[in-house]
Amino acid sequence: MPYDQHDEHEERGGRDENGIRGTALGTAPVPLSVLDLVTVGAGRTATDALRTSVALSRVAEARGFHRYWVAEHHSMPGVASSSPAVILAHLAAHTERIRLGSGGVMLPNHAPLVIAEQFGTLEAMAPGRIDLGLGRAPGTDGATAAALRRTERLNEGADDFPEQLVELTRFLDDDFPDGHPYRRIHAVPGPVQATSPGGVQSPHRPPVWLLGSSGFSARLAGLLGLPFAFAHHFSAQNTIPALDLYRESFKPSALLDEPYALIGVSALATEDEREARRQVRAAALSMIRLRTGRPGLVPTPEEAEAHEFSPLEEEFVTSWNANVIHGTPDEVRAGLDGLHKRTGADELMLTANAHTGEIRLRSYELVADAYGLPTA
Is 116 helix (H, G, I), strand (E, B) or coil? Predict the structure, then answer.
């Protein structure tokens, strides 16, 4: 009989109707979740990467991970997640219980009405399982952002983020006030269907999360009483200040009585510690290329071993990998436990960056085993 995460949640403290607060299973200190960048390794295709995402979402569901998010990126050959809503629809068809969401959709890249329509459609496909995580960065370089937004005024989108968020929320709730120019515009699927003759509407609405790597979204999430997700995996130095700011700024809302913060964590477990080091070194080389304007596919460990790293590149590898929890399952478990203790995060969302999908899949299985998570 398949493991039912919702039954376990009810048994250990009651159902969370919003699906925000997960339940720590096994010996994990907090709920564990998955962040999927849909990475494409050298010699592999986007089709291979997306097949891995399907397999990983099913493994995550079977092993009791709380949620599975996909992040929006553009113009990066090694990251095939340019369309989170499309990917999430595909994953919804292959899973039954795990929460699915965006980690995140970059709000300034899109019209709020379009996002409301997309995530209303996802909610109709997978009722009560959809999260809408929002970021204000472009998820790419400036030129690509300009092509996405059809404007050169890139700061305008980021500066207008609070106003865009309000507009999106009103479309999701279908509650523009009388006299507003959008009062007669409705995001469908959405609440307007319940007010139509004979209409019946799902009681679920995707909860909005704010994502960030600095203090702006942390403070905004706190003031609005929204759950907050921090990108520890690429902004580790800001993690504790941002979480502190979120908690200090938090005001209870209809969605949350108390703060709820998850952090994204780079974590890779392998049976052999040396293999973990090889994989994360290759991933660091991929990041070097991205940061120097040469994005490409995730290189093989053999390519990374043959690469002549400059002293500056070696310094980057050391700094970058210091925040990647990697090694044997026991080492990764100890690293995650220590990170939780330092940050007090309510949830850990793991992203495993490796050349092949097989290694990524195996990493999540090993972490699940290390914490004694349920088996299918």
Answer: helix
Question: How far is Cα 236 from Cα 239, in angstroms, rounded to an integer?
Answer: 5
What string of DSSP letters covers 270-337? -SSHHHHHHHHHHHHHHHHHHHTT---SBPPHHHHHHS---HHHHHHHHHHHTTSEEESHHHHHHHHH
Model pLDDT for residues 312-361, shown as the tens digit of each residue: 999 999 999 999 999 999 999 999 999 999 999 999 999 999 999 999 99
Helices (H), the chain: 5-11, 46-62, 84-92, 112-125, 142-149, 154-159, 161-173, 192-195, 215-224, 239-249, 273-291, 301-306, 311-321, 329-343, 357-370
Q: Which phi-psi region, left, alpha or beta, contains residue 38 (left: φ > 0; alpha: ψ -120 to 50)?
A: left
pLDDT tens digits for range 265-284: 999 999 999 999 999 999 99
Residue 249: partners with Cβ closer than 8 Å, 6 or more residues away = 218, 219, 221, 222, 223
How far apart are the C-alpha atoms of 225 and 59, rounded to whole Å? 32
Q: Residue 2: what pLDDT? A: 33
Amino acid at the residue 20:
I
Handedness of CA 302, 304, 308, 314 (dihedral sign): negative
Residues 6+ apart with CB under 8 A from 375: 3, 62, 63
Q: pLDDT tens-digit profile of 147-201? A: 776 566 655 545 689 999 999 999 999 999 999 999 999 999 999 888 877 767 7
What DSSP line would sit under 148-172, residue for residue? HHT-S-HHHHHHTHHHHHHHHHHHH
